[in-house]
Design brief:
The complex is a heterodimer of chains A (190) and B (214). With 190 residues, chain A is an all-alpha fold. Chain A is 63% helix and 0% strand. The radius of gyration of chain A is 19 Å and the shape is elongated. Chain B has one domain (2-207): Fumarate Reductase Cytochrome B subunit (Up-down Bundle). Helix content of chain B is 65%, strand content 3%. Chain B starts with a strand and ends in a 7-residue tail after the last helix. The chains are: A mainly alpha (190), B mainly alpha (214). Chain A binds chain B through residues 1-2, 4-5, 8-9, 11-12, 14-16, 18, 20-21, 23-24, 26, 79-87, 90, 175, 178-179, 182-183, 188-189, and chain B through 18, 22, 25, 29, 31, 112, 114-117, 119, 124, 128, 131-132, 136, 139-140, 142-143, 146, 149-150, 153-154, 156-157, 160, 165, 167-168, 171.
Amino acid sequence: MRIAVLAATAAAAFLGGCGGPETSQANNTQANISNSASETPTANASATTNGMVMLAAAPNKDQALKIMHDRHEAMEGLGKAMKSLHRALDSSPPDVNIVREQTAIMAATAPKIPSLFPAGTGPDVGKTRAKPEIWKQHDLFIRKSKDFVAAAQAIDAAAKSGDMNKVMALHENVDKACKACHDPFRAPEH
Amino acid sequence: MKQPVWDLPIRLFHWLLAGLIAFSWWSVHNQHTAWHIWSGCAILTLLIFRLLWGFVGSSTARFSSFVRGPGSVVDYLRGRWTGIGHTPLGALSVIALLLAVSVQVGLGLFAEDEDGIYMGPLSRLVSSDTSDKVRDIHELWFNVALGLIILHVAAIVYYRLSGQRLTKPMITGKAELAPGTEPMRPAKWWVALICLAIGLGITRWVIAGAPPLG
């Protein structure tokens, strides 16, 4: 029975490695979703308009922190849009206007993602959950961001056409596109 | 001679609960949120089963056999307790663990993930903001449950060091009893199946969003 006790102790020790009661860094900006989505990625845009050039000129510390802040707002705006969309699609019938608002935010924010992740805005510069892998595997990151743009634009087009069945069918693609990039490129919350 | 102490349903409950708690922790830290939610629903079934079994199960499973006042804890600490099943002190730990896990599951039902992809089965009953706050509390509350689990395991190690093996009876169901100790009175096996069926039924209703509420 010693083995079982040891195994149980080891399991507890393993569970114990899971960090203490840190409070989440929920950024309680009550900014209007659409505002934060449209205002965000203008900083440094000159250097990063197509999302592929950014390695040329790394931003200085202040610029980097500004971009990271804008990035946080934009991503949080996307999260809120996702939540609202999910809830809207769960109710029957879905409120078409609420659905359209959310998909419009997604379609507008998605193409800005590459410019929100220029080199020099990683965890070595400031507090961020962006993993260094974003810049180590930059081609993959850009590909994932383009998948998300495609998914967001497709669902937005469906929402604009008013075809809620199509929106629901495309919803899972958006979920998958978020997850496909978050899983490899976003660090855990704590 | 070895005598029955824990019935099969209690042992299955115990080890499934331990396994599912570990799995819930692992899955949520490895981007398997859907599995995490299913695991939580399975724990809900177990908890409902345990609640019912605590009223109609074998003698050592019944709350009436181990939920006692502080007097019996004092008696136990002075070495004046004889019996089988949960000791008066151990019973406090069991009750705290069951409550902590129940709160944890209850919170999880109302939580949604940070990306708006996964929603707990009852999260639609509350606003998105509330659901996000519930998730934060769900995360913090895990530390309460974890603390109790560590205490639980530490107590077992302590008893082992002082010569008493508690893990083996939880696997085999049997232990050496002092002469004259009243043995476990087993409940009927089919009563356990009814309790499980009720647990599954209520869990299905919760997964469906608790109609007509949801």
